[in-house]
Amino acid sequence: MSAPALRARYATPQEISSWDTLLADNPDGGDFLVSTTLADTKRTVAWQPRYVVFERADSRVSVTLVLERKVPLLGRLWYITRGPAVTELNGLAEHVAALRDLAQREARSVFAITFEPPIAVSELSELEGPAPAPLAALGAVRRPAIQGSASTAIVSLERSEDELIASFDKKCRNMIRRAQRDGAIVEQLPASEETFGHMHRLMRLVGGGTANLALRPKSYTESLWRGFASAGQGQFYAINVDGTPAVMSYMIVIGKRAFYKDGGSERDRVSPGMSNLLIWQMMLDAQAAGATEIDLVGIAPAWATSTADHPSYGLGLFKLSFARERTDYIGAFDLPIKAGAYRLWQRIGERVVAKLHRSKYQDIGLY
């Protein structure tokens, strides 16, 4: 006997009020990219959040945040930043089919759905070519990855403190111990304007100030920092040198997972091991908060061999000294709902809307 069909519906007000708690029950364990704080921030740049629940026979299977944007002449675009929140391909296809049915049933102006699911791949060949067969059968097509964490480094926290530090690269372990011997102290800072100013300064100095990292506008980034901190999900960390932060990071804990969202350092003022010690303290705190893993959020793709190839190459090597192996997600896809409108979106619409978005919001991109 086959299982009941998966159905998508809009969340109730009660479900929305406890949304971030529901994320912990998702198959992926939760992600800040589908949180209420992300939704509130995206609302400031013309994306409208739609909270969606997937259920089978009245039993909730997962939830996801859908961002909706009105596109003149074409209709509405749905975008899922990191989802649907399944971790295997057949389940993803079932979720996408249910999402398509929801759009056709209750949001008939939607012309396409863009999604970037948290499905890890073992072969780089799986990141190229047509959409995998279960998605292609629905009409989905591959598109360029959107999120900067399409390749990332993830560290399991489900082990003792000794086992955790022993899993790091030897040099990484030595750097942590050196910073401890040198008396470096990790502090937590409040989500204040002063803290924001220090973090903005240090983020611009990543890679000695030459990394050319794509940074969101201050108002956008501060909305996230403030929102997660207010919800008790975000925390700033710093190591001071001569009274001011020389290295900083920002960690988010959502559901069962932690995320190293932002960071920066002033190379000339940082002693060896400070950055390693900062990440180590974040991991210990994430573990104490109940997180089962920490995502270090973004490294250079596998094809990059230098910073010239990708600005995150050097930072990625640092992150991999904790994780020891990379995680590559399957990529991003479009599911056309209205073929004609989607063709226009591909041909010119997306470029025009992205250009207008960048101009209006001084942002780095549409998504």
Comma- or semicolon-separated keywords:
seven-stranded mixed β-sheet; alpha+beta; 35% helix; 367 residues
Structure description:
By secondary structure, this protein is an alpha+beta fold. 35% of the residues lie in helices and 25% in strands. The chain has helices at residues 13-17, 19-22, 36-43, 89-106, 133-136, 161-166, 170-181, 193-203, 218-230, 274-288, 313-323, 339-361, and strands at 6-10, 48-56, 59-71, 75-80, 110-115, 120-121, 141-143, 151-152, 154-156, 187-189, 234-241, 244-254, 257-265, 293-295, 327-329, 332-336. It has a 7-stranded mixed beta sheet with strand order 1-2-3-4-5-16-7, with helices on both faces. Strands 9-14-13-12-11-10 form a 6-stranded mixed beta sheet, sandwiched between helices. The mean pLDDT is 95.
Give me the secondary-structure topology.
Elements: E1 6-10, H1 13-17, H2 19-22, H3 36-43, E2 48-56, E3 59-71, E4 75-80, H4 89-106, E5 110-115, E6 120-121, H5 133-136, E7 141-143, E8 151-152, E9 154-156, H6 161-166, H7 170-181, E10 187-189, H8 193-203, H9 218-230, E11 234-241, E12 244-254, E13 257-265, H10 274-288, E14 293-295, H11 313-323, E15 327-329, E16 332-336, H12 339-361
